[in-house]
Amino acid sequence: MTRYRKFMDWLKLTEATKGLSEQDARAVRTTAWVQILMFALPTLLIVPTYFTEPPESHIYTYSTYFPLVVPLVIARYLLIQQRLAAAAILTLVAADFHIAAVSIAQADDPAPMAFLLMGMLSFVMVPRQHVIARWSLVIVPMSLFLFFQFYYRSLGKSGLYAPPHLIVPAEYLMPPLTLLIMFFIIITYQFVKAVNSAEDRLAAELAKSEKLLLNILPREVALELKHDGTSRPRHYSSATVCFTDFEGFTKIAETLQPEELVAELDRCFSYFDSLMDRYNLEKLKTIGDSYMFAGGLPQSNATHAVDCVMAALEIQAFMNQMKEIKAAQNLPYWQLRLGIHSGDLVAGVIGERKFAYDVWSDTVNTASRCESSGESGKINISGATFELVKDFFTCEYRGAIQAKNKGQIDMYFVLGLLPELQRPGHDRAPNSEFEKRYQKLREQEASS
Questions:
Q1: DSSP string, 107-158
Q2: pTM score, two decimals?
C-alpha cells in the first residue's frame, strides 16, 4: 500500500502542489494527468499500429511519436519545478501537434475529436493571468477541428494514407459544428470562471480568518489548533512577563466621553501592539486599562528579558510624549506604571470556545506585583530580571520592597541604556556594541 501511495503521489505530483493555491494545485494535477495519458496512449498503440495500419504509414506514425514524448518529458520537468504556465503550454502544444499529425495521416481517424478536449483543458491547465496563451490554445485546436471536418467531410480530400468514406455538404455540416464549438467554449469558460470566482471568495475569507486567528493566537499555536484541534500547554524554564497599568485612569476617564476614552486607549494599545513584532514579543491580553505581554514564548529565546525592557522603554517614551502634548493643551493625561519579572511559566490555550493564549505560574503574579509596587512613569523590574539585563541597562536599586502576598522582592528602576551602549546624541537608541552583546546572547542560546 505504501509503494502504491508513493507511486500515485509521483503520478499526481503531490510534492509539486505543496504551497500552491487550490486553483494552481488543480492545474498541476490536471496537467500531470494529461501528460501521463498523452504519453501512455501512443506508447500502448505502438505495437497494434504495426498490424492495423497500412505498411506505408508505419514510418510516418512512429516518427510522430518522439516529437510528442520529448516535449512531454520537458513539460514534466517544468511542472516539478512549479513552472506551471510553461509546462501547461508545452503539454498542450505537443498534444495538439500529435493530434494534427495523426489527423493528417487518415481522413477517417477519430483523432480530431481530441481537439475539443484539448481546447477545453486550456481553461483548466493554463493560469488565467496568461490570457493570450490560454485563448490561443482554445481557438487553435477548435479551429483545427473545424478545418479537418471541412477538409475531409465537405471537400472530400484524402489524408496521406486513406481517403474519407463519408462526404457531407458544407452547408449541412459546418453550421451545427461551429455552433457546437462555440457552445463548448462558452460553457467551459463560464464554468471555470464560476469555480475560480468561488475559490477567490473562499480564499479571501480564509485569509481574513487566518489574519483574525493570528491576531488572537501565536502562529505556532494557531497551526497546532488547526492541525490537531487542540494545543498542548508548554512549560518555559525562562520567560519574561510585563504588566502595564494607567495611574489616574479612573479619575480622568470620568471627564471623557466613552468614545473619547476608547479612542485614547486604542491609540496607546495600538502603539504597544506595534512594538510586539518589532521586539519578538507576544501580546497576551488587555484587562481594562492594563496591558500584558511576554517575551520568550511561544518560541524560547535567551533575549526575552532584554526585549521586554527595550519595549518598555519605548512605551515609557511614548507615554511621556503623549503627556507633554496633552499638557500643552491644558488637558490631564494618565501616567503609566510598568512592572517586569522573569522566571518559569506555563503557556497555552485552554477551553473549547473563544480561545485565548494565556500564561500561568508564580512568575505572572510576581510581575503583577512589580507593576503595582512601581511608580508612575517608571519601569520597575525584579531582581531576577535585573540579573538578565544588567549588562544592557542602567538600573537603580530600590531595595527589598514588600509586595502583597509575595513578601519582600528586590526591585530596580530601569533608567535607560548603559552609556557605552547608547548611540551618540540618541540616548534611547542602541549602538553597535549593544548589537554585539545582544548577538552574543543569541549565540549562547544556540550553543546551549
A1: TT-STTHHHHHHHHHHHHHS-TT-HHHHHHHHHHHHHHHHHHIIIIIIS---
A2: 0.63
